[in-house]
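hey m, so remember when u said the tokens were messed up on ur end? i reran from scratch. heres the input so u can diff it against urs
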Amino acid sequence: MLEKETRQEEISISRLMKELDKNLGLKKGSVALWGKLSEDWVHAKGIMDGIVGRLSEKSEVPSWGLVIPTSYEKGDLSALEELRKRVAQFRCLLQVVMQRYHQRATSSCA
């Protein structure tokens, strides 16, 4: 349904995230997270920039850049730390969203 509405009205994900932040009373939690995820992990350009950057800096392909399963190496720690930060941000946002949802659901039943 969201996909259908987005196509018809051409609403950007960033705009939806801004509305979510506004509804949750957050300064820019979800829009900031979406920006980093979009820039580094979601779009092909960010993924390729990460792979090319690692190749140029350390002359090795990052384990996360390979399609086949492989073991992580010490050189992957910075990328994994960045991903850990984004997951932690998402968990905080999810907690706020669920608390607000619960508050609204229980107040409408009273």
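this time it looks ok to me. The chain has a mean pLDDT of 83. if urs says something different then somethings off w ur setup not the seq
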